[in-house]
Automatic annotation (TrEMBL):
SMART domains: IG. One of its GO terms (cellular component) is membrane. It comes from Xenopus tropicalis (Western clawed frog). This is Ig-like domain-containing protein. PANTHER family: SIALIC ACID BINDING IMMUNOGLOBULIN-LIKE LECTIN, SIALIC ACID-BINDING IG-LIKE LECTIN 16.
Length: 422
């Protein structure tokens, strides 16, 4: 009789508290990375990643699916709750009910639909304090109030990565180029600000938002500029700024260039006399076999090309061109072009050819020299005339003085003879 009473008491206890006992049972998991596992209680399954990683200041989605066992139904009134660590740290719920206050300023959002078995949630503007384990609970009135404590996805918050700048290639001087800075996030609604800094012109920039099929967005910024030799080995920085975080990447520009060449000597040439013109171009475009070409309507006798490597990893390309100019080459153009790795630079001169060495005198100088000689001769003539005139005047004066002295002496002699006669 006692045994029958105890059996009846036990059956009544189980019937009254079987749901409470069910709620105290834990789900057992042995897998990782969203692989479905079988619970101790038949029919209860859940899928969730064992660990997700998010960069500081960015966002992440934690996907989650669950089902309940036979005899249980999840209704439209079911509530999903995510806890941080323990039951007391509620971070996201599927309802806006006042009994579940927002403790994350809207950074944690329950994105799934509980009645459809979706328990996914997202984190935006992730902070170091979000680095923890999380557990899920479903409530649907008295029939279901269940903790999935054995499935606790871990969220790991890492440092913010640097943006990516592409393409990373050697630039060419005076050739327009566009570089792209891609932000290290694809979170929709988390549009960053891009800033470019460097010695190049940073005014031509444009931001792009490229939606993806999975709902994410690629954020990037383009900068277009024309590099010059002075931009070689200078820095270019792209800074990406989010709500509370920023990150940047700096690259060093490499610009291949050749300075505008020189042709010398630039003097008047003599028709029929052989001459050698020298061409030189300095730069950092390294090529053992550049293309150096002379272009002009002249009779070229010989061309020799050479190059010199400097300790600073710069190079000077040289070319020596020998020809014999003719009078018909006068006022014609002569051009030398050097091409290295697709970079070209050239220099042109106008040939000045005379018929003989005397013709080397400038046509403007000759009349001036003649006029100068005439002036000199005229001055010399005037000087001679003036000298002759002065000489004659002196002679006449001397003659007059001599005549006066002679008359005086004659009078004295005459008077003296008269006295003697007396």
């Amino acid at each position: 009789m006692l045994t029958i009473r105890m059996w009846c008491f036990g059956c009544g206890f189980l019937c009254q508290y079987h749901m409470a006992i069910l709620c105290l049972m834990f789900l057992r998991w042995e897998g990782r990375n969203c692989q479905p596992q079988t619970e101790k209680l038949p029919g209860f399954k859940i899928e969730a990643p064992a660990e997700v990683t998010v960069q500081r200041g960015l966002c992440v989605l934690v996907p989650c699916k669950f089902i309940v066992g036979p005899g249980f139904t999840v209704t439209r009134d079911a509530i999903g709750i995510w806890f941080k660590g323990t039951e007391s740290g509620i971070v996201a719920t599927s309802t806006n009910a006042s009994q579940f206050p927002d403790t994350t300023n809207g950074r944690f959002i329950f994105t799934g639909k509980v009645s459809a078995g979706d328990c996914s949630f997202s984190i935006s503007d992730a902070q170091p304090g979000d680095d923890a384990r999380y557990q899920f609970r479903v409530e649907d009135g008295r029939p279901i109030r269940f903790y999935y404590t054995a499935v606790q996805p871990t969220v790991s918050v890492t440092d913010l990565k640097r943006p990516d700048i592409s393409p990373m290639k050697t630039l060419r001087a005076d050739e327009e180029v566009t570089l792209t800075c891609t932000a290290p996030t694809n979170c929709p609604g988390l549009s960053p600000t891009f800033t470019w800094e460097g010695s190049v012109n940073t005014e031509r920039t444009k931001m792009y938002k490229l939606p993806q099929q999975d709902g994410n967005v690629i954020y990037s910024s383009n900068i277009t500029f024309t590099p010059s030799p002075r931009h070689h080995k200078t820095s270019l920085t792209c800074t990406v700024t989010y709500k509370r975080e920023s990150t940047k990447k700096t690259i060093t520009l490499k610009v291949d260039y050749l300075n505008k060449p020189e042709i010398f000597p630039t003097k008047k040439l003599i028709a029929g006399e052989q001459v050698t013109l020298n061409f030189s171009s300095f730069g950092n475009c390294m090529d053992n076999s550049p293309d150096i070409a002379w272009d002009g309507n002249i009779n070229i006798t010989n061309i020799e090309n050479d190059w010199m490597l400097h300790p600073s990893r710069h190079v000077t390309y040289l070319s020596y061109m020998t020809f014999t100019p003719s009078q018909t080459d006068h006022n014609t153009s002569l051009t030398c072009t050097v091409t290295c790795k697709g970079i070209s630079t050239k220099q042109s001169i106008i040939l000045d050819v005379g018929t003989n060495r005397e013709s080397c005198l400038d046509p403007i100088v000759i009349p001036a020299v003649v006029a100068g000689n005439i002036c000199i001769l005229s001055l010399m003539g005037l000087g001679i005339c003036w000298y002759n005139k002065g000489t004659r005047a002196v002679q006449e004066k001397d003659n007059k003085a001599s005549a006066t002295i002679g008359g005086t002496r004659a009078s004295s002699i005459e008077e003296e003879s008269i006295y003697q006669n007396i």
